Amino acid sequence: MSDMRLVGFIILFLSLGSCDEDPVIDPGDLSDIPYQPTAYVLDRPSGFPQLEIPSDNPLTVEGIWLGRKLFFDPIVSADSTMSCSSCHLQGGNFTDNLKVSTGVDGIPGRRSAMSLLNVAFHYSGLFWDGRSPGLEEQALLPIEDPIELHESWPNVEEKLRRHPVYPADFRRAFGINHTSEISRDLATKAIAQFERTLISSGQSKYDRFMRGEIFLDDSEFNGMEMFFDVNNELPDAECNHCHAPPLFAINEFRNNGIEPVSSLAEFPDKGRGEVSGDSLDNGKFKTPTLRNIEFTAPYMHDGRFKNLEEVLDHYNSGGHRQKNTDPLIRPLGLTPAQKQDILAFLRTLADTTFLNNPDHSNPF
Amino acid sequence: MRLKRFALCTSVLALLLLSGCKKDEEGTFHVTFTGSFGNEPLVMFDVHDYINGQRVQFSRSEFFISDLNLIDGSGNTYPLSDIELIDLSFTNAASAGTGVVLTFDKVPAGTYADLEFGFGVASDINATQPADYPSSSPLSSTGRYWTPWTSFIFSKTEGNLDTLVDGTDDPDLGFAYHTGTDDLYQELRINTAISIPDGGTAGIIFNLDHEKLMGIPDDPIDIKANPQNHNPQDLLQVQAIINNVISALTFILE
User: Are A327 and B160 inside 8 Å of each other by CB?
Assistant: First the structure.
């Protein structure tokens, strides 16, 4: 009988305990937040390349918004002082206008920040040497680079998981159910989505001229004829080979003769050769876009030329010949006036609509 | 009932046998392109004797071919490919010896009388632009399109020349001959019997001799005097290269 009483008390105790217990609330649960991603369709100017987007990272309004925030947020750096945008400023055509970029520890890098304009079309790899195959992969690297943001991805992931707002942003962008699902993979996907929107407006003077909306002045037109070599009475400036429209870049790597080296082994920065392991690629770098070129000084992978005049002086000189120097690097014979005409044409590639696009600005 | 079942089985068996008899007879056909400079395989940056004691090295040799077709004795065309990029810019002898091999499976077996293709980009494709193609296509490259011509660049022959004749092979002059425009598209037809056996393989190997492509020995291109040209009013070297393709291209059957 006493045993029965004991069992009865235990049951009663458990029942009462059960009634008093608070419901279990998982603070990381995001499933109550709506996940209704909105597909985003990118506009690209007429004649631009086809946009190829990874099937596992389609563009959405919510993904782009999250990527834009992450791009501008110093949360991704070790001391919360720098973000992607520290080296890629909108007003500088998404460069930092420095000879070489400097990271959170004040250590200068060895290369200049590349413009992100039309980076969605860089199908031969990112960075000056093309070492990263795509935007998602590229976005992984600066975070942990000791001379850039010098942070670790586990730390960034933890900071994002504890953040008061980001978990909901990740939920809305990618449909995760729990903060623990926030990952570097999703963060870089979001950043890549935002970067894919950094496309020319199609409103530069050159674009409008090509559509027959406006005229170029004489100097600009002369410059264009030399750029494209369409007038036998003017020198061929040989620009179009590496800076072909519509991007005014080609997805290729070239040695443009800037290094006075006596052998392929002597290039101080081997560029593409570091990636391929082929000495014939030493000293080759990706041909950058000339769109908005007047806003991206200084120039070359190491920022050695302060302005476009110095760049043209280099090409006019014929540069330095090595066996892998592009064959079209040769003395051009441009007069000072002709160089000014080419500069005038280059300025027709200015796209201030892009530079001032509020959709590309700091959201904070 | 048994009889019906027997008749049904017999019919199915007969159908299977008949369909087996109708199986297409097909084989594999290889079209290979190699490059040479005279009798030497074309290896990029290898140094070759040129004219006037100069020394030449090639850094790039590539070209498009279009409308690659087999033609049978009755004039019927079997299309193999609309467009191919043949890039002979190999930097080692082994790869240069292998060349670019195009493989076409399931080609109807039989004997063909001709093989034809165009050197360059045929006018229908040449009316398109790089933006019309995905990045996986060689036609998507703006580096292979020349805006002032509104044409793809049909071929690129690039390299260096040592003009100094100073006993070293240090190049002092780059050269680049790019061809393009519909006017310079050249159709080639090779009249030779090509037999593709059922279930077997046949092939043809083309070699582009760059010594002849540069007009040696009869009318060599003077690289030093004119190391590049692509201005529409000044296409002397470009025209010469196109003219030389026929004599520079030889073939053997595999």
Answer: yes
